Amino acid sequence: MKLLITVFASIFLWLSSVTVASADDVSYYGFEPDITTNYLKEGNDYRLGFIRVAIEVMVPDPSYVSVVEHHAPLLRNAFVSILSTATERQVRTMTGRDQLRLKCIERAKELMQQETGNPVIRDVLFTKYIYQ
């Protein structure tokens, strides 16, 4: 029994150290200024709503930050396009917000693959999310 506990404890510690080591390698690039755009509110009067999002991208290697910075205008345009075509429901709900974030990740990886031959971006984070 002690041997079994020791084996499980060893495996757990080893897995924990592997996870921590890979988490230290990531870096972030924040888009400045925040992205502000409009979206079409639901209803018959076609009013516009506004959304302001602070976006940061996670890259798996610190050397990729300069690559993302070089392509920031392209990525920013893609994020604005995605956010400006969002529905009111997507903007206002948690599931919709996550769908938008996933679309941003997918599009960013696609663009970086086209431009650099490597998807470069691991994740997209909305660090500020305000809508009106």
Give the strand tally.
Answer: 4
Q: How many domain units?
A: 1
Just give the CATH class: Alpha Beta
Topology as H/E string?
HEEEHHHHE
Average pLDDT confidence is 87
The main β sheet shows up as:
4 strands, antiparallel
Helix tally equals 5
* C-alpha-based Rg, rounded: 19 Å
How far the N terminus sits from the C terminus, by CA atoms, comes to 60 Å
Query: What would you call the shape?
Result: elongated
Fraction of residues in β-strands: 15-25%
Low-confidence segments, ≥5 residues, pLDDT <50? 17-21
The name CATH uses for the topology is: GTP Cyclohydrolase I, domain 2
Helix content: 40-55%
Backbone structural class: alpha+beta
The CATH architecture category equals 2-Layer Sandwich
Keywords:
about 130 residues, alpha+beta, GTP Cyclohydrolase I, domain 2, four-stranded antiparallel beta sheet, elongated
Overview of the structural elements:
The protein has 132 residues and is α+β, with helices and mostly antiparallel strands. The protein has a single domain, classed as GTP Cyclohydrolase I, domain 2 (2-Layer Sandwich). It is 54% helix and 23% strand. Strands 1, 2, 3 and 4 form a 4-stranded antiparallel beta sheet that branches. It is elongated, with a radius of gyration of 19 Å.
